[in-house]
Amino acid sequence: MGWVGKLAVGAAVAVVVAGVAGCEGGGGGGGAPSEAAAKPSVTPAPPLVITQEEAEKVFSRYERERRTPPQWKDADGIAEVTTGPLLAEQKTETFLRKARGDRDGSVSGLVNPSFVLPAERDQPSYPRSFAVFSKAAGREDGQVAAVHYFVQEAAGGEWKAAVESWVATAGTVPLGFDDVSPLASLRVQLRKAPVAAASRDAAGAAVLSPTAEADRGVCGRYAEYLSFTTPDGEPDSEEFAPGPLTDEAVRELNARAEEPKLKGLARYTYAHEVTGPQLPVLKLDDGRSLVACPLLRAEREAGTSGDVTIKLAEPSDLSALLDAKGKKWSRTDSKLSLTALIELPPAGTPGPAEVAACNCARPQLLEATGVRAD
Questions:
Q1: Phi/psi at 306 (nearest 5 deg)?
Q2: In angstroms, rounded to a whole number, what is the distance separating the alpha carbons of residues 13 and 250?
Q3: Which one, 1, 106, 134, 178, has the greatest CB density within 10 A?
Q4: Which of the 8 DSSP states describes residue 314?
Q5: What distance in Å separates the CA atoms of residue 68 and residue 97, rounded to the nearest whole number?
Q6: Nearest-CA neighbor of 81 among 132, 28, 125?
Q7: Each residue of 206-239: b (16+ CB within 10 Å) or e?
Q8: Which pLDDT tens digit goes with each residue over 228-255?
Q9: Are 198 and 116 in contact (CB under 8 A)?
C-alpha cells in the first residue's frame, strides 16, 4: 500500500484463541468446553507515543499556522507550532517575505496525511517524535509527498513540527526546481526513484530501526562530505551513491566560484554540522531505512585577494539581511538551514547510502554578517 491511506491502526489487537476442550469429571466424554477455555485471550496493542486522534489535531494546528499569510504571522505564533530547525527557518522566511513586500505568500494546503506513530516502548524517554506524510491540495494523485517530523520535548509538552521536507513516492519525478517548486516550497530537490512506504507492525505502530544511533551517523558523514572550500570539493565518495544530491551537488557548489560574473576572483567555504533533535529512523517496506538529517551550513564568500570586493545581487535574501543595497563587501558570512533525507540499505546488505531529498542547492538563509569594503 502507498503512503496515502496507509494509516496507523492504534486500536488493532492480537487475538489468540485457546481451543482447549474441558471434560466432565474425570471421564473421557466430549463435554462442553469450560467458560474460561471458550473465551479468547486478547492482548491489547502497545500504547503509541500519541494517539491517531491527537496526531491529527497536532497536524491540523500546524497546517493552519503554516498557511497564515506572512503579513499576519509573528514569531510567537510560529513558535507555538514549530521548534528546532523549522522554527528558525520559518521565522527568517517570514521576516524576508515581509521585507520583500510579499503579501500573498500563499502555500499549497496539505491533505491526506498518513501518520507514522512509534510505540512508547520504542521511545521510552523524551524527546519523542512521529512523522507525517501528506499530499499537496489539488495534487493528491501527484508523485511527491511532504514529510514532517513532530517532536514533544517533555511529558505533557506541546507537539511541534521540527523538520520539513519532501520525497518522491511513486513513478519517476523530475529533478528541476521549476517542476518540483509548486509542491516543495521552491527549495527541495528530489531523487528520481521513489521512497517506499514506512513499515508498520501488526498493531499499526511504526517500525523503527534497531540500529538508529549508528544509522544517524550518516548525517555527520554527509555534513563532512559537503564541507570544503571551492573548488576543492571532492565529488567521488564510497559512502554515497552518485546522483544529483551527491557528486553532482558537489560539482555545482564548486562551480559557483567560477561563474562569469565572479571571474574566478571569489571563493566559497562551506562548513556543515548536524543540528536539531534526534529523529526516528523509519524502516521502509523495501527493507531500507530513512534517516532525516537536519544540517546547519556556515558559508563564507570572500575574494581571492585583499583588493577584491563583492557586490551582492539585488534584490536577494542575503542583501536584505545585510541591508546591503549599493554596498561593497570584502567578505560575507551566512548561516543556512538544510535537511537531507538519506536512505540506508537493508541490514546486512552492503552498499552506499542514497540521498533521497535535500535542499542543498537552495537552503534557507537564517542570518548573515559581513565585512564592508567601502
A1: -65, -20
A2: 49
A3: 134
A4: S
A5: 12
A6: 132
A7: bbbbeebeebbebbebbbebbbbebeebebebee
A8: 999 999 999 999 999 999 999 999 999 9
A9: yes
Give the three cell numbers for residue 54: 491527537
Residue 110's nearest CA partner among 143, 85, 81, 138 is 138
Rounded CA-CA distance 13/205 in Å is 12
Contact between residue 207 and residue 118 where contact means Cβ atoms under 8 Å apart: no
Instruction: Give the ranges where 226-316 is alpha helix by DSSP (H).
Output: 247-255
pTM, to two decimals: 0.84
Tell me which residue of 313, 188, 332, 362 sits closest to 268, measured CA to CA: 332
CA atoms within 13 A on the CB side of 121: 7
Residue for grid cell 536577494: 316
How many CB atoms are closer than 10 A to CB 320? 19
User: Tell me: the pLDDT tens digits for 308-347?
Assistant: 888 887 778 898 898 877 788 889 999 999 999 999 999 8
How far, in whole angstroms, is CA 191 from its chain's centroid? 14
CA distance readout (Å), 38 to 13, 17, 21, 27, 156:
18, 8, 8, 20, 41
* 8 A C-beta contact, residue 127 and residue 155: no
Question: C-alpha grid cell for residue 347?
Answer: 541490514
Q: What is the pLDDT of residues 106-151, one digit of tens each?
A: 677 899 999 999 999 999 999 999 999 999 888 887 788 999 999 9
Determine phi and psi for 359, rounding to 5 degrees. Answer: -100, 40
H or E element, residue 59: helix 52-66
